[in-house]
Amino acid sequence: MSASDTGDQRILLIDGHAMAFRAFFALPADGFSDGRGQATNAVYGFTRMIINVVASEKPTHVAVAFDLPGGTFRDRIYDQYKGGRDETPPEFVGQIDLIMQVLDALGVRWLTVEDYEADDIIASLAHRTATEGGEALIVTSDRDAIQLVGESVTLLQPVKGVTEMRRMNPAAIEEKYGIPPERYSDLAALVGESADNLPGVPGVGPKTAAKWIVQYGDLPGIIAHAGEIKGKAGQSLRDHIADVERNRLMNAAVLDLELPADPEHYTLGRGDGTVLNALFDELAFGPTIRKDVPADFLAGGADVPQAPARELPPVQRPASAELPELLTSAFGEGAALASDGSWVLGQGDLRRLALATDDALAVLTLADLDDAAERALAAWLEDPEIPKSAHDTKNLAHQARGRGLRIAGWRTDLAIAEFLCRPDQRPTDLAGLTLRHLQEDLQVEAAAAQQELDLGADDGSDAEAEQLGRAADAVLRLERLLRSELEEHAALSLHDDLELPLSAVIGELEATGIAVSDDVLAGLDQEHATKQTEVAESAFSHLDGDRINLGSPKQLQEVLYERLGLPKGRRTKTGYSTNAETLVDLFEKTQHPFLADLLAHRDVTKMRQIIDTLRRFISPEGRIHTTFHQNIAATGRLSSNNPNLQNIPTRTEEGRRIRSAFGNSAGYHALLTADYSQIEMRIMAHLSEDAGLIEAFRSGEDLHRFVASRVFDVEPEEVDGAMRSKTKAISYGLAYGLSAFGLARQLHISQGEATALRDGYFERFGGVRDFLRESVEKARATGYTETILGRRRYLPDLTSDNRQRRENAERVALNSPIQGSAADIIKLAMLRVDELLREKELTSRVLLQVHDELVMDVAEGEEAQVREVVTEGMGSAFELSVPLEVGIGVGPNWLEAAH
Questions:
Q1: Which residues constitute the signal peptide according to the record (predicted)?
Q2: Which of 294, 307, 305, 277 is nearest to 444 (CA)?
């Protein structure tokens, strides 16, 4: 497009900082992270916003304007300009740079101009476009943009986060404010703008200001007739005319900035899909936002996600009589698998199964197979010599189990392989992996299949089979790519010898589930409901009986900071914070009884929520079948959901009581729990080779008392509870990368005292100090940390210019080798315990793995043998320089089996 084509422009102009801040406050910072400690909620919200607006408005050109730090010419006019704004939230720091990277990948121009604001850039571009016959759409929450609205300029004003926009044209402006858009800056000069710290005329609101503008034409007309305006408002105007004139000077749009004039500079369609996908990977964005990126952004060609271009072998849908021969001839050397099935509450179902090789592709509908064909399929699936691969082997095995089928011979699990190569990226499904690595969109085929279904073409079965075949073919190609990457990342052994075998063990745990008493949970819930009412009534008694909503931040802000006059904490966009951390700090400072009741109410509410979630996941046979994940926690630890059994509190008596609902299965004697004692500190001793820590573990003395005696330079018997607690906090804090500031908050001491404690610790245990320092420096040099099994975590931010990101990476470099090694060891232990149970042909079985603890069903008469198995399996999982100590407890339920 040339400059002469300006009249064809439909340019979208976005206020970058304004929309980034709205996105930041619309989405929780703790819910969006790149996995390395950098919040990405503003980046995600902004990206979603620009995708949505481009998709709906279909602009031909886009420009995003940003403010520069350091102020503008307006600050020289009025030194209090924007002076009332809160300090930038620390979680927002670094996100503007990331937004700019996203815009670069999308091919969208962004601009800054020294000494001017984003508003001025937008005003200049909008004015030029309208003057030359084009159309401009402005996206901003800044009301100063209203003055730009005209026949060719529309304001898209966000009304709900960044997802819902209100179209403001001249008619809409006049209806809302009673004046035409070009007079809005006059109205704002009279009323003032609190966001910019520009005080208006006291006692004059928008309606009065609009009435004066209609009566006298504009601001100069109002000022010229100020002496005629009667009453307090008139006198207030006369007293503040200087402020009004200053405000008008400040809010006037700059229309003549020197900016790139050629429309080609702002044209859409220069984005790079490959770069964008790689950046989304770094930001840990999931597959949904990727497939929503309009093709308008991208330059086309190989970078644009598209339907798979590879021509597949013919999709075979064999009859039952043909299947045995086909399995032998076409798939006897192995296959990549994709399935259509489900697994819910312990019940699996496999409806279709696709098998793919380079030369053959088959899709089986299991309901159509006769007995002989199903036996042939079962034999093929169970043959350990026939290699098989899938995206999520455990889930496919669950589906097959629902059909009475077992699968052996797994070669590659794509989800696990991807995680080992990229542990800090958000897990994705097969379609997401295909989009990420092959730049192909399997959803195109899904849409085609659905279209055939809608049209009634053969009930869509051919299209569905083609789609499932495409998925299996994607598994085939991704497997080669990811196995090559596993070798590059030195993670092939971790995949083949640890994680893939463990997946089968975990699958058995999930399929078995654990027995749960709904009656016990219901009883606990009733107790908590009674207590919830009691603490609420007690809280209301401190408010003269006023019954506020104790879960409403807005009502709590009014009660805490206005009515009760308590010290104000961190300010948020909607007022002063009422989050849990703030309330705990406030209670420690004030000991106010209302806060005590409020915190108790939150605790009991949380207990009820946990209990309610557990009850919803009890299967018809009275068991909970949680789902364990090997590809969520970047350290390698297992996590669980549906429900999250690692989220049951253990630090409080009320939390621990929930475990009393989990018992041994019918026909079993009891539950047995086994966990490691102080495993992180034992790994610290092993990795640091610190003689003092090693001596502490080998001596058999109480570790924290032993360490405290060295830190405080007293005899072990002279160590009191406070000394032991402080030393324990330091030891575990170092293992988790806790800073002196974090230690001070945890111990409720000054940062100076926390620093002195840490320094004293390092003086006595120099090996720990040296190990931690060397861990960071080694990771900075290599780009990654490693566990005892060589599990890597990549930390590019260790060399970042952004201090916050660099410090986050340093904390990860400190704790990942320890936390990751603990994860490695419990996984090795699970494999060894499973192996020993099978060798000894015991009926007892593992039910759960929670953090460093195993929970087992113990069969009648097998307790002694199970104790031996657990002690040997866990104790010998990995040879450290200090012994691995295993604690064991037995009881009728999970609570009483604790030790």
A1: none
A2: 307
Query: How confident is the model at residue 196, as a pLDDT?
Result: 76
Superfamily of domain 8-170+253-266: 5'-nuclease (3.40.50.1010)
CATH architecture of 683-808: Orthogonal Bundle (1.10)
pTM across the whole model = 0.79
Whole-number pLDDT of residue 84:
59
Burial 412-421 (b: 16+ CB within 10 A, else e): bbbbbbbbbb
pLDDT of residue 158: 92
Kind and range of the H or E run holding 583? helix 580-590
Q: What 8-state DSSP symbol labels residue 851?
A: T
The ranges assigned to domains in the chain are: 8-170+253-266, 315-513, 515-624, 683-808
* CB atoms near residue 133 (< 10 Å): 12
Element (H, E) at 819: helix 803-839
Report the greatest alpha carbon distance in the chain: 103
pLDDT per position as a tens digit, 816-862: 999 999 999 999 999 999 999 999 999 999 999 998 999 999 999 99
Q: Which CATH architecture has domain 315-513?
A: 2-Layer Sandwich (3.30)
| CB distance 658 to 612 below 8 Å | no
**Tokens standing for 726?**
């402080």
Nearest to 103 by CA among 63, 162, 137: 63
Structure tokens at 481: 């790519």
Residues of the chain with pLDDT under 50: 1-5, 301-305, 307, 448-449, 452-460
CA–CA dist 583, 579 (Å, integer) = 6
Q: Rounded distance, CA 692 to CA 711, Å?
A: 11
Report the alpha-carbon distance of residue 812 to residue 737 in Å, rounded.
7
CATH topology of domain 515-624: Taq DNA Polymerase; Chain T, domain 4 (1.20.1060)
Among residues 106, 8, 27, 94, which one has the least CA distance to residue 63? 106
**Cβ-count burial 223-261 (b if 16+ within 10 Å, e if not):** beebeebeeebbebbeebeebbebbbebbebbeebebee
Matching residue, tokens 């400690």: 37
Domain 515-624 and domain 683-808, same fold? Reply is no
Q: Could you give the CA distance from residue 824 to residue 870 in angstroms, rounded to a whole number?
A: 17
Task: Determine the pLDDT at residue 86.
Answer: 64
User: How would you label 784-822 residue by residue, b for 16+ Cβ within 10 Å and e otherwise?
Assistant: bbbbbbebbbbbebbebeeebbbbbbbbbbbbbbbbbbb
Is residue 484 within 8 A of residue 414, CB to CB? The reply is no
Tracing tokens 């060609």 back to the chain, one arrives at 301
